[in-house]
Amino acid sequence: MKLQALIQYGFFLLLLTLLVKPLGGYMTRVFQGQRTFLDPLLRPIESLLYRVARVNERQEMDWKQYAVSFVFFGFCGTLLLYGILRVQRFLPWFYPAYQTTPLAPDLSMNTAISFSTTTTWQAYGGETTMSYFSQMVGLTAQNFLAGAAGLAVGVAFIRGFARQKTDRLGNFWVDLVRALLWVLLPLALAGALVLVWQGVPMNFHPYTQVTTIEGGTQTIAQGPVAALEIIKNLGTNGGGFFNANGAHPYENPTPLTNLIALLAIAALPAALTNTFGRMIGNQRQGWTLYAVMTALFVIGLLVCGWSEQKSNHILEWHAHLQSTSTTNQAGGNMEGKEVRFGITQSVLTAVVTSNGATGSYNSMHDSYTPLGGVVPLVNILLGEIVYGGLGTGLYSIILIALLGLLLAGLMVGRTPEYLGKTIGPPEAKMLTLYVLASPLAILPLTALAVATRAGLAGLATNNGSHGLTEIIFAFASSVANNGQSFAGLTANTPFYNLTTAVAMMVGRFGLAIPALALAGLFAAQPRRFGGEGAIRTDTVTFGALLLATALVVCGLSYFPALTLGPVLEHLAGFPSLACSGS
Fold first, then answer.
1. I need a surface site. Which of 215, 390, 459, 548 has the fewest CB within 10 A?
2. Cα–Cα distance, 563 to 570 (Å, whole number)
3. 235 vs 237: CA distance, rounded Å
4. Cα–Cα distances in angstroms (integers) from residue 268 to residues 28, 187, 535, in the given order
């Protein structure tokens, strides 16, 4: 791998690490009700919202009440967005000459669920489907609301470890409002201004018709792009204003906007590890989690970067073409990548977006080499444990840590505990539900797709092992509430609109509810530190256990599917290794 690429990767990780502590400390103050510099401006607004909504900010909830509020809020957001999409042609800023993709009931339903679960899976082209009203009032609003709801659940989960002998996890509505007003809104306003400065449009002008140099005509879409772009990343959503997402020059015109987007995606979820350490009174615990996240991040980055930068063995074996770096060519696999970002920034973006819940990629992963493309897929299958989404990333990696401690405790004959909380039978049941939820959604839905005409009809450009990878990626991305795809799959069909919607709801609620239940169980326990044989959870040994548990769980769940998909595709490039007929 080139030294220049390693320097860029190292610079990004350095910036991210420098942001962890200040952002983590700020969110700690926000969600513990401590004073911040924004209080004089925001406290009156917060109090007004509570009076209008009749919310008692001093009344906390148990995990069941918190979960019901979370689900109810998501349900209301889905219905509201569905209604907007169904009647968008009668609302302002709708241009029938340009918004030509019909928003059928199944596509509207899929999109509404997608944005209210932070998945922002887009089975449509934004500039040819959504009006400015739908983009701003519908999609952008849900990016704020759904992102804030996920952050609220993450904070409630932290309280389960920070508290003892109580069934209270906080008030969902209070956490939601504070996540919106103190965290997302200020960062979004500042970030949007920077994007406008860098050339991202923010207007309500009609689309522009121009004559090209060749004498043809071209339609240039415009609109309130900057407002959507910044919150799609901060809220770990990912849905782009344009079909090309982060590869579009209006969404992502410069290397600086690309860097801002990547930091916006990863900074808040990474900083939640510091918030976790502060709220439980032991920052070493938070730094241990961050170190494991970063180790997995670096592994994926190096593998993907190496694979995309090296020569393409399929071209060498079958077309006898050389794609290695020489004095006359940059080398590597540039298919599906923007020249202005190159392989280095494309790979960095692919790894950042696939590790979190934000699918705002700037290159087409469908065009990656088999080994390069398997990295984003594995990142998604790991379950948002590397930085991840707002709130979801933190509870995902902690749940994997609890599973590792449970298995280690069973092997040595000790009752496992984490931060003084015992992992007993009730807690083990919640862990089991969490671990099984994703594979029980991804694998059966994939099997259904490859076994039916409706599912196979989506493979418009590829079949075989690559086609299987496209289908697996679609359902894995939906369950992970990520939203990116291998673009060779035609997903705007009733079959995929329905099945991916089911996968999104499993990923949003099927994982969050067990996490909240587990937090409620831990909050009710007294804290017992230093039990005999207890494993220290702020050491390198524990970090290695956590990393190994994550990889083993992912491998046991998905290795056969990965073998039939990207691994087989890679081996098929070597005639001497490929199976007959593959």
1. 215
2. 10
3. 5
4. 12, 10, 29
Of the chain, the end-to-end C-alpha distance in Å amounts to: 31
* Tokens coding 433: 């539900």
Q: Tokens 């962890």 identify what position?
A: 20
Query: For residue 410, how many C-alpha atoms fall within 13 Å in the half-sphere facing its CB?
Result: 9
Q: Give the DSSP letter string of 405-435.
A: HHHHHHHHT---EETTEE--HHHHHHHHHHH
Q: Are 409 and 331 a contacting pair, CB within 8 Å?
A: no
**E strands, 124-282, in order:** 208-211, 217-220
DSSP string, 12-65: HHHHHHHHHHHHHHHHHHHHTT---TTHHHHHHHHHHHHHHHT--TT--B-HHH
Residue whose pair of structure tokens reads 């996968």 in the numeric block:
503
Per-position DSSP letters for 284-316, written without gaps between them: HHHHHHHHHHHHHHHHHHHHHHHHHHS--HHII
Q: How far is CA 310 from CA 301, 330, 365, 524, 567, in A?
A: 14, 11, 16, 54, 17
Find the length of the chain: 582
**pTM recorded for the entire structure:** 0.92
CA–CA dist 431, 402 (Å, integer): 8
**Full pLDDT tens readout for the chain, 582 residues:** 778 889 999 999 999 999 999 999 999 999 999 999 999 999 999 999 999 999 999 999 999 999 999 999 999 999 999 999 999 999 988 888 888 888 899 999 999 999 999 988 888 888 888 999 999 999 999 999 999 999 999 999 999 999 999 999 999 999 999 999 999 999 999 999 999 999 999 988 888 888 888 888 888 888 899 988 999 999 888 778 888 888 888 889 999 999 999 999 999 999 999 999 999 999 999 999 999 999 999 999 999 999 888 866 666 655 556 666 665 666 788 888 888 888 899 999 999 999 888 888 888 888 888 888 899 999 999 988 999 888 899 999 999 999 999 988 888 777 788 988 889 899 999 999 999 999 999 999 999 999 999 999 988 888 888 899 999 999 999 999 988 888 788 888 999 999 999 999 999 999 999 999 999 999 999 987 655 567 788 899 999 999 999 999 999 999 999 999 888 888 876 544 444 343
Cα 54 to Cα 42, 337, 353, 523: the distances in Å are: 18, 51, 38, 27
Q: Which residues pair with 489 in a beta bridge?
A: 459
Instruction: Using CB atoms within 10 Å of the CB of residue 566, give its burial: 0 to 12 exposed, 13 to 18 middle, 19+ buried.
Output: buried
Find all residues with CB under 8 Å of 79, minimum gap 6, and list them. Answer: 112
- Angle formed at CA 304 by CA 299 and CA 308, multiple of 5 degrees: 155
Q: What whole-number distance in Å separates Cα of residue 510 and Cα of residue 515?
A: 9
Helix (H) or strand (E) holding 528: none
